[in-house]
Amino acid sequence: MQDFMKDRYGVDDLSLALGGVGVVLTLVGTIFSLHPLSYVALVLLVLALVRALSKNSAARQQENDAFRRIMARIPGLGSRFGGSSSSRSGSRPSNAGAAASDFKRQARTAKKMWKDRKTKAFLKCPTCGQTLSVPKGKGRIIVTCPKCHTRMETKS
User: How far apart are CA 43 and CA 38, in angstroms?
Assistant: First the structure.
């Protein structure tokens, strides 16, 4: 089961949009007892799932690029769906590689924080959100963020 998603396409913008529209239509169909609307929602949800489990990455990438181009023309959504994701290397969707590396980085950070929990205190920079570590038991100290150079006073 671990390798089930290995060669699968995964979730992209089009799959997320289909799933979101499907959930909204399901709610509306249920609230107002519109059974045909619920059936359309079920078809959209199944289509999103089939796209995510597909092994034909090239076709799914083209569909997602076309969707992003269409959505970029709509005012207000252009910034969210700006360019095509085909300019990135690899066969994965544009957000899947970033999500995987973000998850790995978060896991490493959490492991390091757990290991150092007795000797270090961890805080977030209020300006940029960077996680900072300071030695425990030093009283009131002034910490400078290495990323944005914001100075803050804190108790360690």
Answer: 9
Q: Please write the tens of the pLDDT for every residue from 77-121.
A: 767 765 544 433 344 445 556 666 777 888 888 888 899 989 999
> E strand or H helix at 28, and its extent?
helix 13-31
CA 112 to chain centroid: 23
CA proximity to 99, closest of 7, 10, 34: 10
Both tokens assigned to 154: 């804190």
CB 132 within 8 A of CB 116: no
Q: How many CB atoms lie within 10 A of CB 118?
A: 7
Burial class (CB in 10 A: 0-12, 13-18, 19+), 130: middle
3-state secondary structure 72-104: HCCCCCCCCCCCCHHHCCCCCCHHHHHHHHHHH
Cβ contact 121:133 at 8 Å: yes
pTM: predicted TM-score of the whole model, two decimal places: 0.52
Beta strands in the chain (DSSP E): 120-124, 131-135, 140-144, 151-155
User: Tokens 């085909």 identify what position?
Assistant: 86
